[in-house]
Each structure stands twice: as structure tokens, then as C-alpha cells.
Amino acid sequence: MRPLPLESARTAGAGELLPLNKPILSALLALLALFVLSSPSQAAISNDECMACHEDAQVDKGKTLSAAFPQGKFKKSVHAKLNCVDCHSGIKEVPHTGKVPTAECGRCHEPEAKQYASSIHGAIRAMGSKDAAKCSDCHGSHDIVPVKDIESPVFKLNLPQTCARCHSNPGLTEEHRMKFPEAPAQYMESIHGRALLKMGLIVAPACNDCHGVHDIRRSQEESSPIHKDNISKTCGKCHLGTEKTYSQSIHGQLLAKGDKRGPTCTHCHTAHQIEHPGNGGMRKKVSDERCGKCHQDRLAKYHETYHGKAMELGRPNVAACFDCHGHHDVLPPSDPRSRLASANIVQTCKQCHPKATAGFAQYSPHADPMDRKNYPTLHYTFVLMTALLVGTFGFFGVHTLFWLYRSAYLYHRDSKAFHEARLQVEASDEWFTRFTPFQRFLHFLMMTSFLLLTLTGMPLKFYYTGWAKTIFAMIGGVEVARSLHRFGAIITFLYFGLHVVAMVVTIWRRRGELFCDPATGKFSLKRALATAAGPDSPMPTLQDWRDFVAHQKWFFGKGPRPQFDRWTYWEKFDYMAVFWGVAIIGASGLVMWAAQEVTYFIPGWLINIALVIHSDEALLAAGFIFAFHFFNVHFRPEKFPMDPVIFSGRISKTELVHARKRWFDRMAAEGRISDWRVKDEWEKWKTMAHPFGYAMFGIGIILLILIVYAMASRLTH
Q: With left for phi above 0 and alpha for psi between -120 and 50, is residue 487 left, alpha or beta?
């Protein structure tokens, strides 16, 4: 049948054509032409035509005319069904002139293109920089695969390395002044990076989880997910409960009120260098570098506690700031929910101290001895101990200088006579007992335990010095040092107890001679007092004051050298100082050693006082022994380099007559000279005692120098 002309078509039922006039027909044809012209396929230009040139590189006279197209990769890509001109839409004919037009990703990916244009990358590119990342820098070009494909550069496991191509490039980071060029390396070693890259846990965050995908913005922009106001929400996408806890904390509340002092997640955990909270390094960093930024005064006092010193010296498992104050739930102690609220503080202490009581919880880890208003008792204790230190060191420092001056003067005046007198003392053929074997044994215990206590205690006091860290490293760490320190304390209590027991036994055996009237045989108070003040007693007497005055006169050539009895005034001071030191250092040390137990009976704030007393008294003892006692005994020119009497226990008759004539005359008058003559053979074992003695006070001198250096360094900073 012959078809009807279009203009004469009639409607004749449901299947007949509708009549169309010329204006409508013209409009339809125009729309069809527009669609054809704007079609991505550009109709006639096919991929085969493009491959005629781009399948292989075309070279003319050594110059590349066209680049080879990776057909194998393209066929596997998400764009395999597209024509080249769908992306490179500026090409009108082939072969084309000029460079291939840049692919226009936004024609198909309009939302992503708009996001990119407003991002930091798009903004930099819009300003003319060709370095800013574009689509192909992240996704690839002709080999683009789905983002969930493990081969994709933006697949989660590959994304950190993709971002690092620019963000760890020294040239780019310097040119564009990127704040954190080390960020990629830090991320890869962080807990997030290790979880993702080494353990393959794709739930761990990668770069785009925090910074965004196409809409990456600077942290200063309020719409950025890493802006200070948004950080907790960004982290909260993975750490749901933590975000809620933080928002209710004092830090979160500060930030919510617009107070920029309120710290966010990255203040404590950092942005890229996030570590496991249990790491020792993390605990120290949080306390020192993060909490300390805002709470410097509190941090300084924390460092003076055992916790702070031990952490500084390498012990990671001591209490840090967040162990007491909380992690994300930090609240003021006045808040009933706070870990430090009166109803909760004991349980907080029990995390580390299971026997803690309400008394123990009264210990203040941030107490300031200089704060008289808030800590009056601690302040006056500190003032008293400081005065004792300064007074003792000042007095004996002057005393030692005077003595050194007099000895140097005598040596300079007649060095030959000085040497001859010393040789006579050492070459005497008659010797008397100065110290019994039991007394020498006690001194050995005293000497070794004191050095052990100083070696393990002074580095803790001067924790901020390099030598303190070195000594603790050599010892084996803080834990070993603490055990050795307590062992030294046990030895101290042992020799002190043995001495007291021996003294009591001796007094009991000689009670009739010492305390009873010879005529009646009954106890006599007058006799007892005379014995206590007698020349054989180590108790200070009025005669010691007279000897001291006479000695000072001799220092300046205003009188003869005084003669002493069995004990000199400085030896009696040393002896009484041991009683004082063991009592004060020992008692305060026991309070700190058994802090949980003793606070059943005493308030915890006494631990703060015990710490000040123990620390300053130990410094006083170490400084006095290594400086003044060593000089009085070993370093005087007439004794240098060592007086072996404490090892040999004997003194020559020449020295006895020269320095302790009152004692010699008294023994002779009482007919007891023979009782004191030496009965042991020192010569057989002095070759062992001498090196030991040199080693002991050599260590002491080194420690003295280190202590003085540590004190000077603190005063100058």
C-alpha cells in the first residue's frame, strides 16, 4: 500500500498518525540536531580512529609526535566503554592539531567537581598552580578502576602512599609551605597506620576519613572536618562512646562555650602520630607535652613526685596525669562525677594502690612547698630543712677552708719536716687499737650501704640530669634502683641495730663500774652523768667546745695545735649525725615505703612532708660525708690520700702522742696502755683493704661532683 503524505494524514482510529504542522516539525528537527551535535560520541570519531596514531608512539627525527595509549589497562578500567572524545571533548577531527585537550571529568562527575573546586586543592589550582592534585593524580588516568578495587590508588590500603606522593615531597612541601611535611611518615608509624597498612584492618582510618575526599579544606575553615570545633565529631565517627564522654568533660564544655583553650582529640593524641595509650612514650608525652602546655605549674610539681621522676628516668608504668584525672572524662574535683571527687578518689588511688584508704588519698601530688598559704606545714618544713642544709654546709665549709689554709701554710713553710713527720707516723714500731674488729665491720656495712643508697637515691632527686639517667640505665632501671635502695635501707637498720644492741650489752655488763658508787656499790646519778660526759663517751661535752675554740685559734696561728682525747669534736659530730640521720631519713623513708599501711594511722599529707625531709636530709648526709667527712679523715694534707685506720683499726704511737696526747696520757696514768696495744696483724690484709677504700671514697667524690653540678644546673635555669 502506498503511504499517505504526512500533511494529509488523518486520524482513523487508535493506530492513525496525528497531524503535525510545519512549525512543530521544525522545532523537533532542531532539537534532534542539537542533541546529535552535543553528543559525547562526536559521532564520527571512534576509538579506532584515535588508535591509528596512539596505539604506538609516533617518532619523527627523534621527536615524539604522539604518546602510546595503554589499551590493555584502559579495557580494564571503569571507562572502557567510553570513547576518547567523551572525555577529551575538544577534539573535532582526526588527526587533530595541538595537544590533546585535558579530560573534563566534571561532565559526568558534576557533584564531585563542584566539591573539588571549593577544596584546598581546587583553590590552589584555580590560582594558577599546576602542582595541586587533580583528579588523575589521585584516581589515575586511563587505568582508573573502582575505588573499592585493591588496585586503585585511592583504595584504602593504597591511599596513604598516594597522598604521600605530594605531602612528603620536599620540593612541594617547601614551595607551598605545607605545615606538616612529616605527616605521611608519622601516620604510617601511628596506631592507625600500622592497623591499616601492616595488619590490613580496613576499618582503621585513612587520610580521607579525617580530611574528606573531594572537599578537603584547611583546618582553619569552619566547614573543615579537622577544624578545632569539628575534630571530636570527626574522631567520633569511629570512637562513638569516647566522643560523648569528651563532650561532657570540662575540656569539651570549654570548647562548646567557645573557649579556645579547650583541648580536642589532636591536642592530646596528635593528628598523625597517634600512639597506643598504653605505650610508655605516649604516657610521658601526654603528661609533659600536652597536659603541661596548659597546666605548667601542676606539671612542675608532678615532676617532683616519685611518679614524675620515675617516668622521666624511664619507668613507663607509673601514674600519669590521666590515670588520676581521667582520659576523656576530665572533670573538676568539685563535680560528683569526677574521679577526684571525695566519693571517688579512693577508688582512683586503688587502681595502683589496692590498700589505699581515705587517709592515703589526702596525699597531694601537686603540693607546692613554696605555697605558704595553701600548704603551711609543708612550707615551714621546707624552710627548716633548707636552713639546716645551708647552715650545715656553710659552717663546715668555712671550717674546712680554715683547716685547709692552716695545713697548706705549714706544708709551704717546711715541706721536708711535714713529710718526715708523716713518715714517722706510718713507720712507727708500736701500734694501739683505735677501732675494734666489730666497729670496723659496722663501718664497712655503713660505708657500703650509704654508697648504695646514694647511688640509687641521688639520681632520683636529680632526675633531670643526664648523669642520673645514665646511672639508672647502668643499674637496670627505676624498678631495680628502688629494690636496691630498699636493700640499702635494710642494711642501714641492721648496722644501726647491731651498734645499739652492742652498746646496751656493754653498758649492762659494766653497769657497776659505769653507774654505781664505788664505795656503796649502789646506783649513783652523779656517777652515771660523769660516765656519759666522760672522755670515752661519744656524747658532746663542754670540753669539745673548748677544743673547737682552740682549734680555730690554731687555724690562724693564734695558739698551739690542740691535743685531743679519744674522740675529737668533729668525730663526735659525725657520730651523732648518724643517729640523727638514721632516725630522720629512716622514719621518713618508711613512711614513703609503706605509705598505704602508715596512712591507716596518719593523714596522707604527711607523705608530702616525709618526702621533703627524706630528700633534703639525704642530700645533707651525702654532701657532708663526701665533702667534709672525707676531708677531715682522708684529704687533709697530713692524711692524703687516705687514712686506713678504719680498715686496720690501729693507730701508731707517734700519731697518738702527736694528735691525741690527752688519750695517751690518760691511758698511761690509768695503767691501761697494754690493754690497747694491737694484737691483730694488719699487714697481712691491708693490700686488699686499701684498694677497696680508694674505690669507695672515689665513688663518693664522683657523686659529690655530680650532685654539685646538678644543683648548679637547676639554679641557673
A: alpha
CB 76 within 8 A of CB 89: no
The span from the CA of 33 to the CA of 186, in Å, is 57
Residue in 492, 444, 457 with CA at minimum distance from that of residue 692: 444
pTM: 0.75
What are the CA-CA distances from residue 222 to residues 225, 239, 268, 377, 516 (Å)? Answer: 8, 22, 21, 51, 94
Q: What is the pLDDT of residues 352-379, one digit of tens each?
A: 999 999 999 999 989 999 999 999 999 9
Q: What is the DSSP letter of 523?
A: B
Would you say residue 42 has pLDDT above 50?
A: no
Q: Where in the chain is the domain with CATH 1.20.950.20?
A: 376-715
Partners of 651 in the β-ladder: 432
Closest among 471, 147, 159, 542 to 313, alpha carbons compared: 471
| Alpha-carbon span 451 to 466, nearest angstrom | 20
pLDDT digits (tens, 9 = 90+) for 77-105: 899 888 888 888 888 888 887 788 888 88
Instruction: Examine residue 641 and say whether the peptide bond preceding it is cis (omega within 30 degrees of 0).
Output: yes
Of residues 676 and 465, more confidently modeled: 465
User: Which residues are within 8 A (CB) of 120 and not within 5 positions of it... i.e. 6 or more apart?
Assistant: 216, 217, 218
Tell me if 538 sits within 8 A of 567, measured CB to CB: yes
Question: Which candidate, 399, 389, 394, places its Cα nearest to that of 549?
Answer: 399
674-680: long-range pairs with CB below 8 Å, 24+: 676/432, 676/433, 677/430, 677/431, 677/432, 677/433, 678/431, 678/432, 678/433, 678/649, 678/650, 679/433, 680/437, 680/649, 680/650
H or E element that contains 60: strand 58-60
> For the structural domain made of 376-715, what CATH number should be given?
1.20.950.20
Q: Indicate the range of 224-233, 283-292, 593-602, 677-686 predicted with least confidence.
A: 677-686
Residue type at position 168: S
DSSP designation for 626:
I
Q: Helix 569-593 to helix 542-555 angle, to the nearest 10 degrees? A: 110
Given a cut of 90, is residue 685 above it in pLDDT? no
Distance, in Å, from the CA atom of 322 to the CA atom of 199, rounded to the nearest integer, reads 29
d(CA 709, CA 417): 38
**Cα distance between the two ends of the chain:** 112
